[in-house]
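Appendix B. One record, verbatim.
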Amino acid sequence: MNRFWKNTGFYLIIFLVTVGIVHFISTQNETTNRLSYDELRQLIKADNVKELTLRYDGASYLVTGQYRVPPAGAQQNTFYSRIPAEEFATQEIRDASERNGFKLNVEKQQGQSIWLTFLTSIIPFVIMFILFFFLINQAQGGGGKVMNFGKSRARLYTDDKKRVTFEDVAGADEEKQELVEVVEFLKDPRKFAALGARIPKGVLLVGPPGTGKTLLARAVAGEAGVPFFSISGSDFVEMFVGVGASRVRDLFENAKKNSPCIIFIDEIDAVGRQRGAGLGGGHDEREQTLNQLLVEMDGFSANEGIIIIAATNRPDILDPALLRPGRFDRQITVDRPDVKGREAVLKVHARNKPLAKDVSLETIAKRTTGFTGADLENLLNEAALLAARRNKREITMTEVDEAIDRVIVGTEKRSRVISEREKRMVAYHEAGHTVIGYFLEHADMVHKVTIIPRGRAGGYVIMLPKEDRMIVTKQELLDKVTGLLGGRVAEELFIGEIGTGAYSDFKQATQIVRSMIMEYGMSEKLGPMQFGNSQGQVFLGRDLGHEQNYSDAIAYEIDQEMQRIINECYTRAKELLTAKSREVRLIAETLLEVETLELEQIKRLIETGSLDGTPSGDGSGGGEGDGQPEPKEPAANPTIDTPGNVRVRIQTKESGEDVTPAGGEGAGDDRG
């Protein structure tokens, strides 16, 4: 019942009913037929009047009457009209009454009802005011805050049922240790004050999306048992001038009332970007909001017991004043978890999921290099959905394997028709990557290769680093480039023609070689120097601009070095695949038969020559590619993004385009 009374539609109904009543009162005389003065004279002249009544209302005479015989089309037997107040008009009606013999009544003047006058004049305004008041009150009660746009939109979490602790955060042991001091300060601030220690006023969590920055902040509040205010950086700034600064003030006022507490600002880069850079000068609402935030964090007024935790994945664009000691004293990098961290994250998300005995979380962790906590949670959820779709009571490793493919590439499409020629080219292309990844010491290992269409891809290969690493050596980068070129080399050697499938392979290889020369100083000819500055303006995101701080002669030398390194890697790949031609043909022909090969099958196939482990002959299949048709016109092909920069090579239906995002977790930090 309360919801009904608060419903805007209820007040709208009241308004419409009231307007109807007022309209009925004001137009009650309009229920009969209305005649003009000339029509009234014609009616009297035709002797079709049975009775007339005259009533003077101060300006004219209101004439009401009855027909002797209602005319055709008349809806009532009565009518009304108005005649001038002059004497000749009333005298004409009196003469007609004596002549025609109809009854004539003359009423004395009656003033209009004071209540009717009041209702028709004042009530519409009262109704509009009441309706406007209830609409505003309803909007405020529903969270619209129409008149409170200067109030903070931070949400306060104090419910113990939704409490998050450090036990719910896995794969971030070092990050949790850094935040333990914050928890201890909130629990017992006297211990720190006795030693003259000052707890960090602000903690900035930096890391890629999905690594658990928000979860860590809520865990701190849950461990300390204090109120937790959560707000997004974009919630501060609105279209009205001064709203952002007002919301910052209101946020800290509410925090002071609930201190000790934690304020968590997610995506702080939306309001904390560096000042003084942008298109045009003058006043900037975002800068005013940032200035107020700086004052509240470390100004003349002390905010005791309030700790600010912020999260961003763009610390490079934040204002330096925001990062100085006294505001955000501590920066904690929340990176993608390593293999042990991924296993711990999987254990947390697998608590409420029935796993079969064949499911090994350790194996899943090894196969998901570069996955964040959000990616792993989504992976297990996809596996649970697949198991439910198949009416299983447990999640088996089959569902997990398929879920990994769904997360990285997309859903499987076996109904897509691919010609045998394209299948053959894709198979040898993937075999080239596979053989180089298997035999080169530092190349990425192929964990799965298939020519089954999935998503928008006609075939793909998943290549992961052989181990988690933070530093990538020059030889590892060269082996990675050699592995990228293996697909094109295999097409050239075993098919006899080349396609567009190596498009993204070349793009990735060129990016790696350019970084080796221009950023990592790995060129023997140019030496340990860094060329170019990719830091641009703040409003461009800083990394969209590029400054060339070297001469044209150096640019020419860079191009020559890039060409030399890529040519050497291409020659190296050609020599290796020529020496391992038996393995290339064996893997390619097996792919054409079984369509998908896992890592263990690839090892067994190379070592024994067969999938069942039984030693065979030379194991070489066909595949010289004689008599192949002419290649199709190269066309642009779609690309995909993969979690954690896992390198996934895509073969499309038309031309087999190769999509290889930055490979591996360890290489991601070095653009390898």
